[in-house]
Amino acid sequence: MRRRSFLGYGAAAFGVIGLTLIAGWWRVDGPGAPQAVGARPLPLTEMDFSLTDHEGRTVGPETLIGSPTIAFFGFTHCPDVCPTTLADISDWLDALGGDAEKLNVVFITVDPERDTVEAMAEYVDYFHPAIRGWTGTERQIARAVEGFRATYEKVPTDNGDYTMNHTASVFLFDALGRFVTTIDYHEPREFAVPKIRRAMNEEKAEGA
Amino acid sequence: MKSILIAMLMAMTLPFGLATSARAGAGDVVVENAWSRASIGTSRPGAAYMDIRNAGDENVTLTGLRTDLAGMPEIHLTSTNEQGVSSMSPVGEIAIAPGETVALAPGGMHAMLMQLRRPMEEGETFPLTLLFSDGGEVTVEVPIRGIAARGPDD
Question: Three-state DSSP class for A197?
């Protein structure tokens, strides 16, 4: 009897060790691993996903080729980072004046469960008119995030609700779809606007 | 023997000292530059920002918030890690030393207004009460700016 329970504990201990190892692998090397620092997004031409914009049109990375692109992830139930980013981008676009019309500006939700096409339409309406809201299925959102080498995670909150952790950087691509640089969350206008100009000029240098 | 007496005296007077100073503390808190963004309906949480200055000469500790606008107001901190991933979590208590200002500002700490009871309408204000560890309270009228506002007057 004692021997059996000893064996039982041994098996349980092995089980715990095994699970710990698997959990460790998952988080460090496996699918749960955080993206390496400085992992560059794929060129838009190599991404593969299909979403719906806030006017119901089918869109994907190919939609963005031909003009320089500002793209970022967020969700409309986000009270701080997302309205700040959208307001910052609206401010940068104002600073670009008429040139803003030459840009694709895309806000991709990481919360498709709550951010329906209608919710996105209602939300982006409050910001600069150049900003497009993209949503879609969980699977297609995951593919988009993967292409950008971004991350997102659903996190339950105390009140039974949930929030989303997500990459808050703004991604810049030139008109050929090549990644140019990122603008960090809440980066000041005097750094952000020249970066956008750079993405626009790379297009000219290349496209001439 | 003498040192024990002094220690006992200190131990006895300490709580009184703390209580008095703490009462003085919350009364010396000044809230400035408060603002918030309008909401779309009530399903999404709101956020409010402000500078909380301890103008007194005693420590104060902010323990919570109260407002009729939201069922669950809490101070949250947004942090962004080196991968550029942002996350949000409740802050708990905030100690403010004499002469110090704690800023609730976009991208840092904010008063997270969960379970809105009514929409936050641009141009209106709402009362927000800051609760301190000594039982002191400071109430501020928070102006509601546009949904794309970037600061108290921008």
Answer: helix
d(CA A80, CA A78): 6
Distance between CA atoms of residues B95 and B62, nearest Å: 6
Contacts of A182 in chain B (CB under 8 A): 84
Residue B82, number of CB atoms within 10 A of its CB: 8
- A-chain CB neighbours of B121 within 8 Å are none
Alpha-carbon distance A199 to A201, whole Å?
Answer: 6
Q: What is the pLDDT of residues B18-39, one digit of tens each?
A: 433 334 578 899 999 999 999 9
> Is residue A185 within 8 angstroms of chain B, CB to CB?
yes
Burial degree of A45 (CB within 10 A; 0-12, 13-18, 19+):
middle
Is there a domain that residue B115 lies in? yes
CATH fold of the domain at A44-207: Glutaredoxin (3.40.30)
Residue written as token pair 């976009």: B106
Residue A186 confidence class, pLDDT cut points 50, 70, 90 = confident
User: ipTM surpassing 0.90, yes or no?
Assistant: no
